[in-house]
Amino acid sequence: MIAKILVASEVAGGVVLFLLGMQMLGAALRASAGERLRSLLTGATRSRVRGLALGVSAGTLVHSSAATVMTVGFVHAGLLSLAGALPVLFGANVGTTFSMQLVSLRLTDYALAMVAAGGVWRMVVKTERWKRAGEALLGFGLLFLGMKISGGAIEPHREAFAGWLGAMDGASLRGLLVGTAVAAVVTAIVQSSGAVIGMAFVLAGSGVLAGVSQTYPIVLGAHIGTTVTALIAAVGTSAEARATATANCAFNVLNVAVGIVAAGWILPALEWAGGDVVRQTANAHTLVMLLGVVVALPLTRPAIALLTRFHRSKEPERPGSFLDREKLRTPEDAIVSVLRELGRCADLCCESFALVNRAFRGEPDVDLRRVAKNETSIDEIKASTRAYLHELARAYLSRRQALMVQGLDRCVLGVERIGDHVESLAYLVRKDGGRVLDRLDADTASALARVADLAEKAVRAVARSFAADNGTLEAASWEVLDARNTFMRESVPVRANIEERLSRHEVPARVVLAFGEYAVALERIVRHCAILAQEQRRPSFKIKSTKLGRLAGPHASLAPPADED
């Protein structure tokens, strides 16, 4: 009994090391390629072939689960359309097979050397960029070390394991379907196709799975199970983002269906191609995905029509990103694009604030998960907009344009901070259950609700101000400042009243503490709104219609400033 427990613990420990290594490797590569990867993926709308190639690159670097979740997030943020997302999804699924080809090389004998080298590298190197390279090598080593430990524990008991897995043989249709279903469930639980296929490599290398017909169902099931990650990520997002996650699921079901129908031709072809079972399994993973792309890519347009019909939304359609790279050649038009993008970002803040305000009042059926999704979108828009501004700053700009680019950069940060504070309010509402108003007397509760409405009014005024033209910009900025002044005028007496009631022991201290947390978050939101309005009132913050369509002059070599939080 103890021996069985030890074997099980070794196998489990090896699997955990494998998963940890994959996570560390993926995180290091994502951090290294973050901004470039975002720019590449959000520029994938130019052609299906380009989108497919970019998706392959993303899937190879960060695996399909992470790449598809990123893609769903970009679609929700309006940085990528559904039409642009589909080829990226197809490519990401193919790309992850290339990374698993690398894992199939079975470099287990060098695992500890890679762990040692990566760990020492990370400790010795000072720059963050090169530290990530050490983390990637460390993760790669842990991945192979996990495979080595699991394989070593399984090998002496391979006959027992082979008996348990005997029903999952792709040589028969029943075995193929059973194996696919079991592998899909396991992959959905661990949310990593790479981990499940990696274990198939371990089982094949240990002699438990003697042929590719036994590993083939595991590969197919992993294709289906991995789609759960994107489906979960799409909960609470826009209709188009949910359609993107559904498309990813449909693509993987399609390539599995192709793999099952064509199993009679694929399995002999894999054996004919040669190599050990591990290599044949990796080749099966790649081949099935490629066949899926061949079938799915020509069907992109009808698929978009079907997905759009299936994921209809009662909400008004969201505008896509205004950041057109072609307009970087005409700086004034690019500045207008950034203003519109800021308005789109502020609209997300308004949507989130409205949801929080409804939950704050105790309204039922308010989905606060949407607030978290919107905040992620706001962060993505911030990163994309700042990258766009940094590229614009490399062009030859007039003094006013240069000052306005700086002002817009500060506005991007300000809108993002409003989103952060709205998310903080959502956290407070969730923690409190939306009952803070119930604990106050009717007059104080009404006053606090009024203050929250004034803060929401200030945020909506900010969103409108970014859509204003030169003729109405001053009035729009005054509207924001007026909302700020009204908020301050009405919130001070409310706070004084509740503090006075606390001193008379008429309300418990915990209620006053909760009230204070809400009030501080609201004040911070309104303060950032006022800062944005003051930025808009600068003399340089205006559009010159005479410069619209005018090309930039000679390019300057200005390095982008560091990111701020």
Question: How would you describe this protein?
Answer:
76% of the residues lie in helices and 0% in strands. The chain has 20 helices and no strands. It has helices at residues 2-42, 48-76, 82-103, 111-124, 128-154, 158-164, 173-190, 193-205, 212-225, 227-233, 239-261, 263-273, 277-296, 300-310, 331-360, 369-392, 399-432, 442-465, 470-503, 509-536. Helix 8 (193-205) packs antiparallel against helix 13 (277-296), helix 9 crosses helix 13 and helix 18 packs antiparallel against helix 19. It is globular, with a radius of gyration of 28 Å.
> Please, what is the oligomeric state?
single chain
Order of helices and strands: HHHHHHHHHHHHHHHHHHHH
Helicity level: over 70%
Determine Rg (CA atoms, Å): 28 Å
How many strand segments?
A: 0
**Molecular shape:** globular
How does the helix and strand content classify structurally?
mainly alpha
Portion in strands: under 5%
Reported for the largest beta sheet, the result is:
none
Average per-residue pLDDT, rounded, comes to: 82
- Unreliable parts: 555-565
Number of helices: 20
Distance between the termini: 55 Å
SSE blueprint:
Blueprint: H1 2-42, H2 48-76, H3 82-103, H4 111-124, H5 128-154, H6 158-164, H7 173-190, H8 193-205, H9 212-225, H10 227-233, H11 239-261, H12 263-273, H13 277-296, H14 300-310, H15 331-360, H16 369-392, H17 399-432, H18 442-465, H19 470-503, H20 509-536
List keywords for this structure.
single chain; 565 residues; mainly alpha; 20 helices; globular
